[in-house]
Design goal:
There is one protein chain. By secondary structure, the chain is α/β, with parallel strands linked by helices. The protein has a domain of 332 residues: Glycosidases (TIM Barrel), CATH 3.20.20. The strands form five sheets. Strands 1-4-5-6-8-10-14-15 form an eight-stranded parallel barrel, surrounded by five helices. The protein has a three-stranded antiparallel sheet with strand order 2-3-7, with no helix packed on it. Strand 14, helix 14 and strand 15 form a beta-alpha-beta unit. Helix 9 packs across helix 12. The longest helix has 25 residues. The chain is globular and about 60 Å long. The protein binds 6-O-phosphono-beta-D-galactopyranose. The site of 6-O-phosphono-beta-D-galactopyranose has 15 residues, from loops.
Length: 488
């Protein structure tokens, strides 16, 4: 098992899940600022700003905005040479369509990148990690409006120019394929900034999984996002030819539940729609043929793909393919299969796998299978796993220690699987675990679903003093990085 010498090791966070300070220094509201927390069985809910007493987890999150120096120091102690974070779009353009960017927002990320530089940590920056400014949702209808392409490109160019000498690695949209997953309107809102008027104007809580959606609007908006991403990639390369700009796909690996050829075909189709479609466009620069059958069978008129857009997609292909991997799922055409929860996707339960408390099926072999498949699909494109991790309840012992062997048990075989994939010839260049420090869950809005090597004293009832503590897994990951993946 041999990780390359210059392998990127680190962790990943998103601004809305860690920063807090949701209106500080000129920031405007972004989508997650409108969402309440749920629990292990209940998804996050949308509540228009009518209830001042409600608890919105992103408003304070883990207060990274004021703790970033302490946190980056801890990451450096673990040996990170990369740190994936997102810029909160609403810090830079509070209303999405402001003439001038917000200087205080820009200055915050200067401070963060300078702190990384102090320790030789390369930032890997996501431009949009579910953080579309709320005003873009209400005023423009999110990416269903072509004007938002220009707003995004202006934002991207502002960041590229400002941080040209501080950031080399960029990602355009986090999990762009969330729009193709079937959890109600959650993908529309998080990924595309679309919410139907009836939901925006509701006077009661709406679970994210019950938001309304309209497939024609979804795929048109997703197309606009592909165009925005491609234009940003092109502009980025003009600003600094050394930039490495990637896409980001939520990879929910699927298997047929049985050897019934009908299940095999159903899994193949699902893999194409949910995992491959967006990556194929962003890596190869054109719509794959299989999607037109799906469009036809689902009454989606593809006339939104113009000749000019096709040219833009070709000119804005990505330099690397990055993805999140947490679990796998099964697909079946049978009707009586037991279903399980998952990251964005409900799927049939795999009898060979265990699952987390949230029903996410644990499958390290699936990671090797996925990387090997991507190696063959995109033979000339470097790959990076930019999210992988285990959400769990943690307990703080009386002496302040936190024993989390279950987290190490999750990571160990996943890291091993990456090593095997590298031995199989995969061009894997880096790995950032999800949530190296506890943060707010994207799916449930919980604090109790903890991912970190670093514990944060903050709880779902709004208590806690935000202090940080190392868990047992902290020293374990430090050792893994120090040995370049040998000592696991
Ligand atoms: C991915 C998101 C992350 C992150 C992760 C874990 O889909 O990109 O933002 O949160 O999933 O999901 P959750 O927070 O719901 O446990």
């Amino acid at each position: 098992m041999s990780f390359p010498k210059d392998f990127l090791w680190g962790g990943a966070v998103a601004a809305n899940q860690c920063e807090g300070a949701y209106l500080e220094d000129g920031k405007g509201l972004s989508v997650p600022d409108m969402l309440l927390g749920g629990d292990v069985n209940t998804p996050r809910t949308f509540l228009p700003k009518t209830d001042e007493t409600a608890f919105y987890p992103s408003h304070e999150a883990i207060d990274f905005y004021h703790h970033y120096a302490e946190d980056i120091k801890l990451f450096a102690e673990m040996g990170f040479n990369t740190f994936r974070l997102s810029i909160n779009w609403g810090r830079i353009f509070p209303n999405g369509d402001d003439e001038e960017p917000n200087e205080e927002g820009l200055a915050f990320y200067d401070r963060v990148f300078d702190e990384c530089e102090k320790y030789g940590i390369q930032p890997l920056v996501t431009l949009c990690h579910y953080e579309i400014p709320w005003a873009i949702v209400t005023k423009y209808g999110g990416f269903s409006n072509r004007k938002v392409i220009d707003l995004f490109v202006k934002y991207a160019v502002t960041c590229f120019k400002r941080y040209k000498h501080k950031v080399k690695y960029w990602l355009t949209f986090n999990e762009i394929n969330i729009a193709c997953m079937d959890e109600g309107g959650i993908g529309n809102l998080y990924g595309l900034g679309i919410m139907e008027d009836e939901d925006i104007n509701a006077d009661h809580r709406i679970p994210l999984t019950e938001l309304k959606s309209n497939p024609q609007r979804t795929f048109e908006a997703l197309h606009n996002e592909f165009v925005a991403s491609a234009l940003a990639v092109k502009a980025g390369h003009e600003i600094n030819p050394d930039f490495v700009i990637g896409n980001m796909i939520a990879h929910v690996t699927v298997y047929p539940l049985t050897p019934n050829p009908k299940d095999v075909l159903a899994a193949f189709d699902e893999d194409n729609l949910k995992n491959n479609f967006c990556g194929d466009i962003q890596v190869r620069g054109e719509y794959p043929k299989y999607i037109f059958r799906y469009f036809k069978e689902n009454g989606i008129d593809p006339s939104f793909i113009t000749e000019e857009d096709k040219k833009i997609l070709k000119e804005g292909t990505v330099d690397m393919y990055t993805f999140s991997y947490y679990q796998s799922g099964c697909v079946t055409t049978g009707e009586d299969a037991e279903m399980t929860q998952g990251n964005l996707l409900k799927s049939a339960k795999n009898p060979y796998l265990k699952a987390s408390d949230w029903g996410w099926q644990i499958d390290p072999d699936g990671l090797r299978y996925t990387i090997d498949k991507l190696r063959d699909r995109y033979p000339h494109t470097p790959l990076m796993v930019v999210e992988n991790g285990f959400g769990a309840f943690d307990t703080v012992e009386e002496d302040g220690s936190i024993h989390d062997p279950y987290r190490i048990d999750y990571f160990r075989p996943h890291i091993k699987a990456m090593g095997e994939a590298i031995d199989d010839g995969a061009p894997l260049i880096g790995y950032t675990t999800w949530g190296p420090i506890d943060l707010v869950s994207a799916g449930t809005g919980q604090y109790a679903k903890r991912y970190g090597f670093i514990y944060v004293d903050r709880h779902d009832d709004g208590t806690g003093d935000f202090s940080r503590k190392k868990k047992d897994s902290f020293d374990w990951y430090k050792k893994v990085i120090a040995s370049n993946g040998e000592d696991i």
